[in-house]
Amino acid sequence: MIMVLDVDQAARDLAGGRLACPHCGGVLRPWAWAPVRTVRRLDGTSEPVRPRRTRCSSCHTTQVLLPAWCLPRCGDAAEVVGAALAANATGRGHRGIAADLDRPAATVRRWLRRVRGDHAEWLRRIAVTHLARLCPELVADLHPQPTVLGDAVNALAAAVYAYRHRLGVATDAWTLVAGLTGGRLLTPVPAD
Ligand SMILES: [Zn+2]
Q1: What are the residue boundaries of the DUF6431 domain, all occurrences included (predicted)?
Q2: 29: CA distance to ligand 1 center in Å?
Q3: Looking at CB atoms within 10 Å, which of 22, 106, 148, 180 has the fewest?
Q4: What is the pLDDT of residue 170?
C-alpha cells in the first residue's frame, strides 16, 4: 500500500517509470486495478474509488496506490475519522461525535478504541518526527495536552502546518495526515 497525495501526478509518475518499489527500489509498473470501493466524505456524500495496482519489475510484489484522502480498509474518508479523533481529543464522547458525523455510534467507538494508548503515542511520535524535519523550531512549542490522543492530534496539526508552510501545498489536513502516517490513522504498525 502506497498512500498517494496527488493521484494524477502518481499516474504520470507510474507511466513514466518514476515510482520506486518500497521493498527493493525497483521500478513499479501499472498492473491492474483494485476493486471499486465507495468512500464516505465529511459532507455526507460518497465517492467511488478504484485504486491503481502496481507490480515491481524487479521483485514482482504488488502495491496498491491508495489516494491519501481514503484510509486502508475503511469506508470513511480520512477527514471523517480525523474529525472524530479531533473531537474526542477535546473531550467529546463517541455518541456525540457519532451524532455530529451521522455515523453509527459503534463505528465511532471502534475508531476511538483503536487510537487509545500505544497507537495514539505512535501517531504523536510520527508527527513529531515530521515536524522535526520540516520546522524543528516548532517542536518545543508543542504544549502538553490532557490526553495522549490530544498530544497526538496537536502534534499532527503542527506537522500539517509545517508541511503546508514548507512545501506550499494546500492539501486537506487529514489527507496530509493520512499521507504522513502511511494510512495508519487507525491501524497499528505490524510488529516485525
Ligand atoms: Zn520490488
Answers
A1: 21-111
A2: 10
A3: 106
A4: 85
8 CA distance to ligand 1 centroid (A)? 22
In a domain, 105, yes or no: yes
Which parts of the chain sit beneath pLDDT 50? none
Distance of CA 133 to CAs 17, 62, 130, 175, Å? 28, 30, 5, 19
How far apart are the CA of 27 and the centre of ligand 1, in A? 7
Residues 63 and 86 in one domain: no
Q: How far apart are the CA of 25 and the centre of ligand 1, in A?
A: 6
Domain boundary among 67, 95, 112: 67
Specify the number of domains making up the chain. Answer: 2
Q: What is the pLDDT of residue 169?
A: 85
How far apart CA 34 and CA 139 sit, in angstroms, is 39
Residues 87 and 25 in one domain: no
Non-local (6+) Cβ contacts of 65 within 8 A are 2, 4, 7, 10, 14, 19, 51, 52, 53, 54
Q: Using one digit for the tens of pLDDT, what is the confidence trace for 147-165? A: 999 999 999 999 999 999 9
Q: pLDDT value at position 146?
A: 94
- Same domain assignment for residues 82 and 159: yes
In CATH, what number is assigned to the domain containing residue 32? 2.20.25
189 CA → ligand 1 middle, Å: 20
Going from the Cα of 32 to the center of ligand 1, the distance in angstroms, rounded, reads 16
The whole domain housing 110 covers: 78-180
